[in-house]
Amino acid sequence: xxxxxxxxxxxxxxxxxxxxxxxxxxxxxxxxxxxxxxxxxxxxxxxxxxxxxxxxxxxxxxxxxxxxxxxxxxxxxxxxxxxxxxxxxxxxxxxxxxxxxxxxxxxxxxxxxxxxxxxxxxxxxxxxxxxxxxxxxxxxxxxxxxxxxxxxxxxxxxxxxxxxxxxxxxxxxxxxxxxxxxxxxxxxxxxxxxxxxxxxxxxxxxxxxxxxxxxxxxxxxxxxxxxxxxxxxxxxxxxxxxxxxxxxxxxxxxxxxxxxxxxxxxxxxxxxxxxxxxxxxxxxxxxxxxxxxxxxxxxxxxxxxxxxxxxxxxxxxxxxxxxxxxxxxxxxxxxxx
Length: 337
Prior knowledge:
Blueprint: E1 2-5, H1 11-23, E2 27-32, E3 37-42, H2 51-54, E4 59-63, E5 83-85, E6 88-90, E7 96-100, H3 107-120, E8 124-126, H4 144-156, E9 161-165, H5 171-174, E10 180-183, H6 191-198, E11 204-207, H7 214-226, E12 232-236, H8 254-261, E13 266-268, H9 270-274, H10 277-289, E14 294-298, H11 316-332
Parallel strand pairs: 7-8, 7-14, 8-9, 9-10, 10-11, 11-12, 12-13, 13-14
Antiparallel strand pairs: 1-3, 1-4, 2-3, 5-6
Helix pairs in contact: 3-4, 3-11, 6-7, 10-11
């Protein structure tokens, strides 16, 4: 349920109403702008009579939220959220690019790639230490050692780091080291993991599941936010369809759809969507054109010999050219890079 206060309502009046509702057992999400104040009421409101609220002189209107997600709902927070990742804003007018290899392989590889993507304008460094693979015989990542290499490369190049978490028992290793924790597509509905991440204050990058609907995706974000961590960024990375020419099918329409439904920032991973390096560039441009808040792009200095997903990785020189082209598109759609 949404309670819209009248413009100019004194803070003590909205606070009085909030406290009254909290005493009745509801959780209240307060969203304030320059000319509005909205109280988002979370809880069982099925038997709640809105007329009890509308008699308040300071209440403009009361609306029921039909969608199952509440805190992620744009009705609860009309303005776009901006998530701060160690000083790097994701959302708002800024277009943010995350770049780096799919898997962390060696110290030299990480330092080389980190320096090159930094020079090209990437704001965050990605790299996989714990790798979820379809086959148990594929490279599974360097695990804790890989995490150390990623942390060192990020610190050396002054780049916040992004890496994927696989299970809740690794949270302690990630908190304090990782600036943006990625929840991969296969774990989008690992609800116990999402609940535990909700108890942290680390920003979370939540990738869309292989066959997840938009509502299911946002509901997974709701799990994290319900635990108290509202620093959630959604990431479209392609979904499974009948088409087998590409690795996945990038759902470009999901970006404006989510923007309509939710206030959370939306990023796009064109590398996993296509699975082919030569498709990454046009898909990245399309994502920016339709309103994505950022991109996650795989870059490898030697993709021919990469231990994981070399076929979808850009070489540093191609990434540099892509960044220049993205800046031109960003200007056209009113974004900064």
